[in-house]
Design a protein that fits this description.
alpha+beta; 6 helices
Length: about 200
């Protein structure tokens, strides 16, 4: 039988994987179960309560918005009924820019604040860290010229993702954590405080 710590980490990892599988497939009822009721989601295009994120994600899914996710490496620090999980991920979005269909791949990490309540691990706050991205036309022969001023408005880690989203009507937050810098250092400090018993999961 696995130890309690191993069982906790397995349950947290399963929750992270369920988030991706249920969200990307449009399984909204089960997607809601990965969060605690006060859960908070931050993305490039959305910052707010998880219940609102579920609603707007469903609306986008049903209207044809094409955003998918893949996962790889995982690590988790557990302290009692709290945990911080980090999972390598890639955000994949397909949409048109100036009539040219493109794919954007943004690589980074999900940085998740977890808590175990009534025997169930759930997400209290999810903050992605955006490390590197790129943009490619689906048709390699297509010609596309990006606006350098619009591109420069956004941080390097998610510059092309933000470009695509802003061109398609999303309002994109411009100061999210990347691989280095003050924003990600603040996030790490909030994670340590959460494990030490802070009243809130940082300042989303």
């Amino acid at each position: 039988m696995p130890s309690d710590l191993t069982a906790d980490k397995l349950a947290i990892r399963e929750t992270v994987e369920n988030w991706v599988l249920w969200r990307d497939s449009g399984d909204w009822e089960r997607f809601a179960t990965v969060w605690h009721p006060d859960g908070w989601m931050t993305a490039t295009w959305f910052q707010g309560p998880a219940r609102e994120f579920i609603a707007v994600s469903r609306k986008g899914f049903e209207s044809g918005v094409n955003i998918l996710h893949t996962l790889s490496g995982f690590t988790c620090d557990v302290s009692g009924d709290r945990a911080i999980a980090q999972t390598k991920m890639t955000i994949l979005q397909r949409a048109a820019i100036d009539g040219v269909l493109v794919d954007v791949a943004c690589t980074g990490r999900f940085y998740d604040f977890f808590e175990k309540r009534d025997g169930r691990w759930g997400i209290v706050r999810r903050q992605p860290i955006y490390e590197k991205d790129r943009l490619d036309p689906v048709d390699p022969s297509a010609k596309l010229a990006l606006d350098p001023q619009r591109l420069a408005r956004f941080p390097e880690g998610y510059r092309h993702l933000a470009y695509l989203q802003s061109k398609n009507g999303f309002t994109v937050k411009a100061d999210l954590p990347g691989l280095r810098g003050a924003a990600v250092e603040t996030l790490y400090a909030e994670g340590k405080a959460w494990l030490a018993g802070s009243a809130k999961p940082g300042q989303p």
